[in-house]
Design goal:
The protein is built from 2 helices and 4 strands. It is α+β, with helices and mostly antiparallel strands. It starts with a strand and ends with a helix.
Length: about 100
């Protein structure tokens, strides 16, 4: 019997679903905190230039309800990205149309 990576519930073999899930992050340089943003900020201040941040994803076993939630979050994220790109294109078009010709 498998265990869900997200909610840790036991999953019957017939209901096992595999999804790509976020498993963690790392920051180049010193690990001065358990918070990725704080590590990035401190390492960038120490080095006086932005440091690298890496996110890790892996295929994991999840239960059907967590798989539905992951799929819904992915669709929402994709929708936000598309909405942002379309909005930026509309604003850019309006700005270019309102600029006086030289």
């Amino acid at each position: 019997m498998a265990t869900c990576f997200i909610c840790a519930n036991h999953i019957p073999t017939a209901q096992v679903v595999r999804r790509r899930v976020y498993t963690g992050a790392s920051v180049g340089g010193f690990n001065l905190s358990s918070n990725v943003f704080v590590n990035w900020l401190l390492n960038s201040a120490i080095r006086k230039r932005p440091t690298s941040v890496r996110s890790y994803y892996a295929i994991r076993t999840v239960c059907p309800s967590c798989a539905i939630a992951l799929d819904k979050a992915e669709r929402r994220r994709t929708g936000l990205i598309v909405t942002g790109i379309v909005s930026a294109a509309i604003v850019l078009t309006i700005v270019l149309l309102l600029m006086p010709a030289r």
